[in-house]
């Protein structure tokens, strides 16, 4: 038999565990040393030994090789090492200038070419008999520097540079003139002129885009004239080249806020606060935004619950944060109108809706005004509102607006006849549930047994209420009525004599079946609340009806 594994005593186990740990540690250290040695050997083979011992010429050559492989970071490192070896060699700075320009780091490039110019001038001062070749190189570097200054919008500096060469450059002179005009307009708050001049500089002269100061001033001018999309575009360019520009985050957030794009506004305020939690502009913008959106959302929730008065108060609280913030105030005002309409406060609804329309006509505002006026039985005014909406509507809304005008014309015509909506005291866009509720209340109110003192009027009203409910509770009949088509008369008048005879020959049993069938349909459509209210009619009322029939 095979014996099981031999168990060791605790005294035997500890030394073995320590030995295993020691062996593993030794192997790991050996592996690390081998890796370091291999890496060092490989690095030395590739770079020709320790780079600290390389000459400036060798380092420039390594930089050129890295450039060919588009390894810009490595190339920059080699050039900076070459500068540390030969700090007074202008060629090193000039090559670094070309690299930074290729990397689109134009601000760094300007610093490099400036240093190259200064070194050349110092060498000329130190060497009284400087060659014409060095002098020509200095002039060449200065022209490159001046041109770069123009492209970066530093036109006054460019003009000074050309003056040092005893030259006049038309682009630099014109750029300086336009830039000064832009700055003057900006300081005088002449925003439109400032936008025009800054745009001229940025389009025709400062073409490299690395001009955050000019772009920011142009963005501020655009914001002050209400061109918020222009502000967003230009601050976006700033943040692309200067991702830590706090003022650009604040201004862009405020522009989104003005466009009622609250989520984007909040995003930019928060990005600014990440960089500086105590930045006053971003903190204030974020605070106002939260105050507006909080009240607005609470108002929406209250409206959904049917708490219309509370919704109105919350919406006004949101609007009063900044009543001139029209991109938010105008649509919110229409929500207030709908709440007043739900409360059947037609005069107040019309008053608030007129504020929206008087500020600026909109299809949505005029349609809501027409709805309010129709509910208030101002059918002629309602038709005019719908016609005005049709006049200003864009092409893709014309058809919808035409239908609204036709509906308003039908409502005006029906207002002079028997108006079923008016009879049931419901708006033309009332839902079936609202129609049923109004019918139930009016039927109980005008039931002849409840109005013995004015029974004739009650019977007429009860008949009209029943007729109105019969039409408006039937989808097909309601659609015909809304189109202005006769619901019954046309059908009866169009009958020929044969149809009339057939209709007149209907026996009493058929008539009773039809009547009972309609009553059953109506009863089945009632909810439990309807049944309880109708069943609650007391026995005294029933006896009165019976006695009258007797």
What percent of the residues sit in helical stretches (DSSP H or I)? over 70%
SSE run: HHHHHHHHHHHHHHHHHHHHHHHHHHHHH
Radius of gyration, taken over Cα atoms and rounded to an integer in Å: 43 Å
Please summarize the sheet with the most strands: none
Q: State the secondary-structure class.
A: mainly alpha
The total count of helices amounts to 29
Ends distance: 117 Å
Strand content: under 5%
Mean pLDDT: 80
Oligomer: single chain
Tell me the number of strands: 0
Explain what the structure shows.
The chain is an all-alpha fold. The chain is 77% helix and 0% strand. The protein has helices at 10-47, 56-68, 72-85, 90-102, 106-126, 132-151, 155-164, 170-187, 191-204, 212-224, 228-241, 246-258, 262-275, 280-304, 308-319, 326-342, 346-359, 363-375, 379-392, 398-415, 420-424, 432-445, 455-472, 475-482, 489-493, 497-504, 508-525, 528-535, 539-549. Helix 15 packs antiparallel against helix 16 (326-342). The longest helix has 38 residues, at 10-47.
């Amino acid at each position: 038999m095979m014996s099981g594994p031999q168990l060791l005593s605790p005294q035997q186990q500890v030394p073995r565990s320590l030995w295993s740990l020691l062996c593993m540690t030794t192997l790991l250290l050996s592996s690390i040393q081998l890796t370091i040695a291999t890496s060092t050997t490989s690095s030395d083979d590739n770079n020709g030994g320790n780079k600290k011992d390389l000459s400036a010429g060798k380092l420039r050559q390594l930089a050129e090789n890295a450039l060919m492989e588009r390894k810009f970071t490595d190339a920059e490192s080699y050039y900076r090492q070459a500068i540390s070896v030969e700090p007074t060699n202008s060629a090193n700075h000039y090559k670094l200038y070309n690299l930074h320009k290729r990397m689109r780091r134009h601000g760094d490039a300007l610093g490099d070419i400036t240093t190259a110019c200064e070194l050349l001038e110092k060498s000329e001062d130190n060497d009284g008999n400087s060659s014409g070749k060095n002098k020509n190189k200095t002039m060449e570097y200065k022209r490159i520097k001046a041109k770069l200054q123009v492209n970066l919008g530093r036109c006054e500096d460019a003009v000074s540079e050309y003056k040092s060469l005893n030259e006049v450059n038309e682009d630099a002179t014109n750029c300086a003139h336009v830039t000064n005009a832009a700055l003057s307009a900006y300081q005088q708050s002449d925003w439109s002129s400032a936008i025009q001049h800054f745009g001229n500089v940025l389009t025709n002269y400062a073409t490299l885009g690395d001009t955050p100061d000019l772009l920011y001033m142009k963005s501020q001018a655009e914001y002050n004239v209400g061109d918020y999309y222009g502000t967003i575009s230009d601050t976006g360019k700033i943040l692309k080249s200067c991702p830590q520009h706090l003022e650009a985050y604040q201004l862009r957030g405020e522009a989104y806020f003005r466009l009622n794009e609250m989520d984007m506004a909040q995003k930019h305020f928060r990005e600014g606060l990440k960089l500086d939690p105590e930045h006053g502009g971003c903190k204030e913008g974020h605070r106002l935004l939260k105050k507006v959106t909080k009240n607005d959302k609470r108002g929406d929730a209250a409206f959904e619950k049917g708490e219309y008065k509370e919704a109105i108060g919350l919406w006004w609280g949101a609007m009063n944060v900044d009543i001139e913030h029209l991109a938010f105030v105008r649509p919110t005002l229409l929500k207030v109108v709908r709440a007043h309409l739900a409360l059947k406060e037609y005069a107040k609804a019309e008053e608030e809706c007129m504020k929206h329309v008087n500020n600026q006509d909109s299809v949505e505002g005029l349609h809501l005004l027409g709805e309010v006026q129709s509910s208030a039985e101002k059918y002629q005014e309602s038709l005019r509102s719908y016609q005005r909406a049709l006049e200003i509507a864009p092409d893709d809304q014309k058809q919808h607006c035409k239908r609204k005008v036709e509906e308003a014309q039908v409502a005006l015509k029906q207002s002079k006849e028997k108006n079923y909506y008016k009879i049931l005291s419901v708006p033309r866009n009332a839902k079936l549930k609202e129609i049923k509720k109004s019918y139930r209340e009016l039927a109980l109110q005008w039931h002849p047994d409840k109005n013995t003192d004015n029974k004739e009027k009650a019977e007429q009203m009860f008949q009209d209420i029943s007729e109105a409910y019969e039409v408006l509770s039937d989808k097909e009949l309601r659609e015909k009525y809304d189109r202005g088509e006769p619901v019954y008369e046309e059908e009866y008048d169009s009958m020929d004599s044969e149809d009339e005879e057939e209709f007149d020959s209907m026996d009493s049993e058929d008539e009773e079946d039809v009547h009972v069938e309609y009553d059953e349909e109506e009863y089945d459509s009632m909810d439990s609340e309807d049944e309880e209210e109708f069943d609650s009619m007391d026995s005294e009322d029933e006896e009165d009806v019976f006695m009258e029939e007797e």
